[in-house]
Amino acid sequence: MNEVLLIYATALLLAWPLGRYMASIYSPAPDFSRRGCGAIENLVYRAIGVRPDVPMNWKQYGKALLKLHVIVAVTAFVIFMQQGRLPLNPDGIEGMSWDLALHTAASFITNTNQQHYSGQAQLSYFSQLIAIVSIQIVTPAAGLAVLAAILRTLFARQDERRMTSSGEISVGNFYADLVRTVTRLFIPLALITSLLLAWQGVPGTYQGAQFAHPIDSSAELSEQRIPAGPVAPMVAIKQLGTNGGGWYGPNSAVPLENPTPISNFIETVAIVLVPMASVFMAGYLTGRRRLALSILGVMLALSAATSGLAIWSENQPNAAFAGLAAEGPNLEGKEVRIGASATALWGAFTTQTSNGSVNGMLDSFNPLGGAATLMDMFVNATFGGVGVGLINYLLLLLLAVFLGSLMVGRSPELYGRALEAKEIKLVSIALLLQPLLILGLTALAVTLPGLAQNSNPGVHGLSQVLYEYASAFANNGSGFEGLGDNTVWWNVSCSVALILGRFIPILAPLAVAAHMAAKRAAPVTIGSLVIETPTFALLTLGVILMLSLLSFFPALVLGPLAEYLSLAG
Amino acid sequence: MKHERNQPRWPDVQALAGESLRRLAPRSLGRNPVMFVVGVGMLVTLWQTGADIAAGLPWKFDLAITLILLFTVLFANAAEALVEARGRAQADSLRSTREQLFAQRLAAGAEERVPAQDLRIGDRVRVRAGELVPCDGEIVEGAATVNESAITGESAPVLREAGTDNSGVTAGTRLLSDSIVVEVTVESGHSLLDRMIALVEGAKRQKTPNEIALTVLLAALTIVFLIVVATLVPFAGFVGAATEIPVLVALLVCLIPTTIGGLLPAIGIAGMDRALRANLVAKSGKAVEVAGNIDTLLLDKTGTITHGDRQANDFLALPAVGAERLRDASLLTSLADPTPEGKSIVALARNRGALAEACPQTQFIPFSAKTRLSGIDQPDGRRIRKGAPDAIRRFVADNGGRYPDETNALVERVARGGATPLVVADGGQVLGVIPLSDIIKAGIKERFQRLHALGIRTVLITGDNPLTAAAIAAEAGVSDFIAEATPENKLEYIRREQAQGRMVAMMGDGTNDAPALAQADLGLAMNSGTQAAKEAGNMVDLDSDPTKLLEVVEIGKQLLVTRGALTTFSLANDVAKYFAILPAIFAASVPALETLDIMHLHSPETAVLSAIIFNALVIPGLIPFALRGVRVRPSSADELLRRNLLVYGLGGVLLPFPVIKLIDLGLGLFI
């Protein structure tokens, strides 16, 4: 328990100053990091042929974002299919099938890192480094860039608004936001973290696999092949950028990715660090610190609830042990050296932040622990993915503003700017998409025979499928596993959920922000809805719970809850 | 005495039932996405009932669901029909008035009798005592007393006169005395009477922007629940549980926001209806909604904040002038002055022994907003004026006199006391000052405090000088004031407020108010006012009561709060309905889920029926809320939100549990 509190406290204490620093990256005012990075950034701008100082309207910003992702996705797709013929392949790994390459590209450009393959066996060093690690740096940066664009537009005071040359509302410059995030935030942060991990014994090498000879001569194995590589930097960025895709298939459960209690502590903190810091950043960037604090409060409440449920659940004995003398926590699928609580906390964090890395098998969680991780992904705004988590939260906040304004007798408005049918339409589309894709694809997969290929029938099998799509849509990437998921159906259907689940929920709020900023702001009176108060925080919490609870309650009841009640009964 | 038009009439049950059935037509139902889904669901269960009967399977449960769904739609239809019917009764009486209107049109010196519909803009008609005014227009000749009770419900006669701000007459009102010539200013079919008929019938009702946004949200939620219920079928199939179509339809109807969906049209019409019962005719539903957003209220001092008849209570002569000279000069200027102020000066002067009478051929110079003074020109060339200090200063200067500093001291003394200083001058010589004091209406201060608690700024508009205005503003407790108001600076003030993003409401009657009324977000024109004012505003107050602005704001807020509160309530209800229906669906196939049946309902069938019966009954149960509106207490937004969240959010989650249980207990007795 103390460890859990210590992790929360450390994350919060680090997130505060980090958030303040992050705000300086996106502020127009000069900041101290510019001096060091300016020269490198200018080289990058020149190399890709863009101007970082031209203000963009939301459509131009969105187009630049999509263009970058299309180029990266196509490049990655080609690399994955052709990796057998490319250099840095000491272990002679073959190219991927088209559908697996498609899914892997989709999964990585959406900051999801859902893996239908096992990294150490199916990716060459070239693929890992060029395609995987570089995408793992760029995609969280893209998420943060869009968040910064939305924050500076949606909450801009009348005199803070910027215009494009054609007189439209400017949301910023995508290239500047993106490149600065990479050079000033992720590269330095990942460097520090990977050094810390290397200090704890995580490998960082360009040599091929190592070979060991078992001492136990009765083992049938005469020689053990231990894949290695530049693991430490990849683990650092996988945790910090809510990526989640590890070097090894079993992710941070493998001692080589996560060797010690200290590395586990560092990696757990690293999962929530940037998403938490984004909330502080929002406060400093917009100057609305009380709002940021109330958002942080709601997120912490949601986080504490599901982390608590997961930790409690995993400290209950596994149902298979019922009636046995030796009772203890549920250690199925967990590393004994990490233990039940630390695995449960990681499981909760990784789903709250749409990270997706694991240090144990989520599929083996007790039913309610599994339900906790599912609920985290349905909410998808408890800290959430880097950048996108807070964007999702803002979508729900807009709905709360709509209801709250009406309930105080005002036409809906956010800081004096009217929230009208046009904006509600965009918000509704983004919100509709979630049940449509998660429930719709799950329904298809369980209806069409031969598609699901579950390891379990019945209620747990349903949870597995539901989890897979929830994870894809939330851009989480973790899995309940147990699915034979490297098939054309799984690869293609997950790609659809991944891509729509990534881009619609960030582009719709960007459009809303730009539409709203173009409106005249009314002054705030005591008759206006105040969104910094605890009352409004409660309303937002209610809206979040109702939306995820009401849309996914039947699925949760039939999946994990039915399993829990059956096992309990 | 209020006319009975203002009493809500409850239409008889039979007519209401008929109307509710008529609205089952697909086209009528299609306008409301939520109710449309319920209608389709009902057809599905009806088909299922038929199929079961044909196959010899048990069908009574299916039929029960079908019937309850039918009633759900009927209740929603009834809510809308009920509100509209209350208006229709008013419309009928108004329409019969319109049909009996004939006009005496003046053409080439002769009069011809024509039906009122044939009148065109610019036509002149003569109306005599005892006749009904055939058209909306302005009196161009004469003055008359008019009974406007057909429109306002107020039977006390009012004076309407050519060339004043009270020159407007309305079709359907009855002349009680005299004879007037009216120029038609509104095309037939667009008069206030026509507008009221269209309004109360709901014929011209368009969805307001907020209503559209809410409908979009409700439609999105409906689609979400369609997905939830549709995907439940394969989920259940996968875990080996059977699902029945009627039960799924019941679940769907329970989840989609039928409560707010069913009551939304009624809430909108009820808002208009409440406005109408306060004798306010809005040109659109939007005008009522805008009222809830008003940040700044511009209020005329006279009539709104003070009683308006300012009384002279002293004569303050300059040291060099005798008190009697001032008294007599004041009397002379006011003898022909019809204003209450003038009359009070005459009364005070006579009271103090003034005997002067007007000599023949004296020319009276009436007060105008432009010159801001009045007085007399005598045949002997003597010119006496009384008026605002700066106007008199100019007058004195024009007559080659000097405006002594002592006057300023007197003016300031009077103004600081909250009275209006009226300076009197005889040619180039200033005689003194008459303080006119104003009496602030009882209860107005408390009313302003309520408005301030809702975050609304109040601005006093007065022709008084800044000192007087400040004194009265302080006494009445308004937030700001516009002194020495002219049509231009009123307009200027409104524009300035709007540039800061504020929504401004103002009330006016005169033609010179028209630009400001048009500029304001909510322009409330008095029915007694000129046609130009009525055209410029987006609402007309039939009572011509300046305090009405306060009521409009409250009605607008109520309208929005009612929508928000019922939406929250509707969504919050879903929790309990889930707990009733989900265990019922899976009772047979997944017995473990029995634990979820926390209400311990009688049987799966009664559980499903109880939930949809509750769902149906909530709609008529909340009609009174929709009609009356949720009470808006004057408190800060946060307090209001806390209260509504507690009542409609938490209440909405908790209330259905005991009620569904009760319905289930009742059903258990029969099944």
Would you give an account of this structure?
- The complex is a heterodimer of chains A (569) and B (671).
- In chain A, β5 and β6 form a beta hairpin.
- Chain A has 17 helices and 6 strands.
- In chain A, α7 packs across α8, α14 packs antiparallel against α15 and α15 crosses α16.
- Chain A is globular and about 80 Å long.
- In chain A, the strands form 3 sheets. A two-stranded antiparallel ribbon of chain A has the order 1-2. A two-stranded antiparallel sheet of chain A has the order 3-4. In chain A, strands 5-6 form a two-stranded antiparallel sheet.
- Chain A has a domain of 182 residues.
- Chain A has 569 residues and is an all-alpha fold.
- Chain B is α+β, with helices and mostly antiparallel strands and 671 residues long.
- Helices cover 53% and strands 15% of the residues of chain B.
- Chain B has a 7-stranded mixed beta sheet, sandwiched between helices. In chain B, strands 12, 13, 14, 15, 16, 17 and 18 form a 7-stranded antiparallel beta sheet that branches. In chain B, strands 2-1-3-9-4-7 form a 6-stranded antiparallel beta sheet, with no helix packed on it.
- In chain B, α4 runs antiparallel to α6, α8 runs antiparallel to α22 and α22 packs antiparallel against α23.
- The longest helix of chain B has 40 residues.
- At the A-B interface, α13, α14, α15 and α17 of A face α7, α21, α22 and α24 of B.
